[in-house]
C-alpha cells in the first residue's frame, strides 16, 4: 500500500551514521532504493574546508543530504558553499551528536541548549546556499527535554527559516556519557515527535529512532502528519529488509534488486576500487548485511570480514556470491540472523 499523506515528502530516509554511511554504504543502499533520501555522516565543517577535494560524495547519489557538524558561523557558511558545489540536494546541521568531543567543542547536541545560536547558524547557511537547510536534533537534553523546551527550540530555529526538523526521539545525556550509551538510553518517546508534527503542520517533521522495518515506517506515517521516517541501524544491519521501499512507499513499480545482482555489482565495485588503489575492505565492510538471512551466511560474512587483513577480494566475493545463489533469502523478510 502506498502511503498517502499530504505532508509526506520524503517518507523514508537513511540516517546519517558516522563510520557507516560513507559513499560505499550509500552506493549499496542506493542500489536497493532509488527514492529514499540518503545522508552523509556528520562531516565537521573544518574537515570539509581542509580537504574539499576528497571524494565526499559521488555522482548519482541523490537525493542526498550532507550533514555538517560545527558551531562556527564562518566555517559553516564556507563549508555549506563547498557542499552545495558538490551537488548535494540539501544540507543538515547536526544538533544531536552527544559525544564528549562534540560537547567540548560546543557542537552537536550541546547546541540544543543554545537555540538562538542554532537559529543564527541556520540563517547564515540559508543565506549562503540555494539548497534547503535542515536540522537534526534530539528530543532535548536530559533535564530540559520536555515539550516546552522542544517547541521553543524548533520555533526559534524555524523563525530563522528552517523548515525540516529530524528529531531523534530520545533525550541526549551530556557530561561524559558515550555516544553508544546515548543510542540505547534514555528511552524513545515517539509520541512527543508525533505531537510536534501535529502542532506544527507548516514544518516538515521527520522521526528517527528504533524503526526496524517498512511496517514500522508505515505505522509512524499513519500515526501523525510526519514528513518522513528515518531509519538508521536496521538499514545498515540488513539493507535488503528495505528492498520493497520504492514500491511500498513511493509507488514505484520497478522490481527490487535481487541479493544476487547486488552481490555481483558489489564485487565489480570492490574490484574497481582495489584497481584504483583502495582497500577492498573499504567497500565490503558495509556489505556484510547482504548475507544476513542466507543459509551459510556466517561463513560468507567471516570470509568477507577477513578482507580487513588483506586477501583476494575477487575470490572471496565470488565464493560469497555462490552462497547467495544457493539461497538468495527472502527479500521481504524481517528476521535477523541468530
Ligand atoms: C554508529 C552511529 C553513528 C551515528 N552518527 C550520526 C551522525 O553522524 N549524525 C547524526 O545526526 N546522527 C548520527 N547517529 C544517530 C542516527 O542518525 C539515528 O538518529 C539513531 O541511530 C537512531 O536511529 P536508529 O534507531 O534507526 O538507528 C548515529 C548512530 C549510529 C548508530
Report on the structure:
With 338 residues, the chain is an alpha/beta fold. The protein has two domains: 239 residues, Aldolase class I (TIM Barrel, Alpha-Beta Barrel); 68 residues. It has 14 helices and nine strands. The chain has an eight-stranded parallel β-barrel with strand order 1-2-4-5-6-7-8-9, surrounded by five helices. Helix 3 packs parallel to helix 5, helix 5 packs parallel to helix 6 and helix 11 runs antiparallel to helix 14. The radius of gyration is 20 Å and the shape is globular.
Secondary-structure blueprint of this entry?
Layout: E1 12-14, H1 23-32, E2 37-39, E3 43-44, H2 45-50, E4 64-69, H3 73-85, E5 90-95, H4 100-105, H5 115-128, E6 133-138, H6 147-159, E7 164-168, H7 190-199, E8 204-208, H8 214-223, E9 228-231, H9 233-237, H10 245-250, H11 259-275, H12 280-284, H13 297-305, H14 313-326
Parallel strand pairs: 1-2, 1-9, 2-4, 3-4, 4-5, 5-6, 6-7, 7-8, 8-9
Helix pairs in contact: 3-5, 5-6, 11-14, 13-14
Amino acid at each position: 500500500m502506498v502511503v498517502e499523506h499530504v505532508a509526506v515528502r520524503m517518507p523514508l530516509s537513511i540516517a546519517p551514521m558516522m563510520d557507516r554511511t560513507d559513499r560505499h554504504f550509500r552506493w549499496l543502499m542506493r542500489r536497493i532504493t532509488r527514492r529514499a533520501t540518503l545522508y552523509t555522516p556528520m562531516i565537521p565543517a573544518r574537515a570539509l574546508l581542509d580537504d574539499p577535494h576528497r571524494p565526499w560524495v559521488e555522482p548519482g547519489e541523490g537525493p542526498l543530504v550532507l550533514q555538517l557538524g560545527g558551531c562556527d558561523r564562518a566555517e559553516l557558511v564556507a563549508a555549506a558553499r563547498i557542499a552545495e558545489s558538490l551537488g548535494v540536494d540539501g544540507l543538515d546541521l547536526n544538533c544531536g551528536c552527544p559525544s564528549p568531543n562534540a560537547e567540548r567543542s560546543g557542537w552537536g547536541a550541546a547546541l540544543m541548549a543554545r537555540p538562538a545560536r542554532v537559529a543564527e547558524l541556520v540563517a547564515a547557511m540559508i543565506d549562503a546556499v540555494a539548497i534547503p537547510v535542515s536540522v537534526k536534533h534530539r528530543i532535548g537534553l536530559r533535564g530540559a527535554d520536555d515539550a516546552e523546551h522542544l517547541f521553543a527550540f524548533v520555533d526559534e530555529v524555524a523563525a530563522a527559516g528552517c523548515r525540516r526538523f529530524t528529531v531523534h526521539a530520545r533525550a541526549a545525556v551530556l557530561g561524559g556519557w558515550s555516544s553508544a550509551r546515548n543510542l540505547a538510553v534514555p528511552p524513545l518517546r515517539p509520541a512527543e515527535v508525533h505531537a510536534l508534527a501535529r502542532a506544527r503542520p507548516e514544518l516538515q517533521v521527520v522521526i528517527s529512532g528504533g524503526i526496524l522495518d517498512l511496517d514500522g515506517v508505515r505505522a509512524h506515517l499513519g500515526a501523525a502528519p510526519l514528513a518522513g521516517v528515518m531509519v538508521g541501524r536496521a538499514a545498515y544491519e540488513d539493507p535488503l529488509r528495505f528492498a520493497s521501499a520504492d514500491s511500498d512507499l513511493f509507488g514505484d513499480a520497478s522490481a527490487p534488486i535481487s541479493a544476487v545482482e547486488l552481490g555481483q555489482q558489489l564485487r565489480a565495485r570492490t574490484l574497481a576500487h582495489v584497481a584504483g588503489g583502495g582497500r577492498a575492505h573499504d567497500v565490503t565492510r558495509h556489505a556484510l548485511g547482504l548475507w544476513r538471512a542466507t543459509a551459510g551466511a556466517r561463513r560468507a560474512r567471516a570470509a568477507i570480514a577477513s578482507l580487513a587483513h588483506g586477501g583476494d577480494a575477487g575470490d572471496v566475493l565470488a565464493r560469497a556470491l555462490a552462497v547467495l545463489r544457493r539461497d538468495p533469502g527472502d527479500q521481504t523478510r524481517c528476521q535477523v540472523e541468530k
